[in-house]
Amino acid sequence: MNQDLLLELVEKHEAPLYVYDADVIEGKYNAFKNAFDVENLEIHYACKALTNLSVLSLMKSLGSKLDCVSVQELQLGIKAGFAPEDIMFTPNGVGEEEYDQAISLGVKINVDNVQMLEYLGSTYPDLELCVRINPHLMGGGNSKISVGHIDSKFGVSIHQLPLVHRIANKYNIKINGIHVHTGSDIHDGDIFIRAAHLILTAGESFKDLEYIDFGSGFKVAYKPNDFHTDINKFGQKFSEVFNAFCKKMGKNFTLKFEPGKYLVSESGSLLTKVNVVKQTTSCTFAHVDSGFNHLIRPMFYDSYHHIDNLSNPEGDEKLYNVVGYICESDTFATDRIITEVRKGDILRFRNAGAYCFTMASNYNSRYRPAEVLVKGGEGYLIRERETIEDLVKGQKLIKF
Length: 400
Hints:
Helix content: 25-40%
Number of domains: 2
Mean pLDDT: 92
CATH architecture of the largest domain: Alpha-Beta Barrel
Oligomer: single chain
Shape: globular
Distance between the termini: 53 Å
Order of helices and strands: HEHEHEHEHEHEEHEHEHEHEEHEEEEEEH
């Protein structure tokens, strides 16, 4: 994205500011879609990565369907224009009431434990269901985002499939889909192939099977020359495995994926203003007008976000610790090489499109940033900056 445009957007909407490039999102979506050579492919955007209504609307316009993990995400998806039948509900550990709400909205249901499978089968005898299977494979760039291993809370153990079939037979449940997701930021693409062989073998035992959902977890580049998933190479290899399964079974199943970070991460930037540059005996701190209340990933996942100084791109490179304004340890980057940082400079945090604003909070009673979507070189405000009225909304003041 043009740095002059980013500076103009900060001038207009102030910092901190989230900015997303719609053209990057469209390019990633089309690259993903074109990477696979199968008869039936469905892309379900994992909207927990970024749920702004305008981003959801953009995804719908591209032809995407939706993956949601809460009733609130379902409601946002429907509000953005998605048809309920194009939405998959894949929660974890929720109660019967939330499944009841989702079913009343008319969305597709993915079940991740046998107790809920029995409840839904006995309560909704004509409901078609998908079952999330835990393949007991470790995948993911961080232990906190590895969700398919043996100790994970997600999914029905692959060893419990005989029980799944007994419950399905008892209540005459039509299980027309199976689902697997091993984690996020997966470095080894072969983990998908290993999971595919396991799940496809398991799929042979489901007589009503129509589709298989392989989740996501594709690695994006966070720094120059960083490793990332070669989606074309992966798509070709995965298509061969899936097509062989379809040929073996004599049926063209639908292949589904749920990319989230892959589609939106690289589109996003968090723009912050430098409040103070402080020199100590050991390092130089660049204090910005943001913190882990806006971008928690570095503190929570030890994640790397590349930082550019938009105001001084040609300055001499120096070493900085970039920190936030939250009153406790609040570090974005340590010993980071950046062109000379001065008070008032605008620093850009890259890869801020996924799991950034959606994980933001009002900690320290700070406002969450505004959001802008850029399309064709023009910026559109898609979320206003919060005010004190937003912070106190819903509160009741009792005077003592």
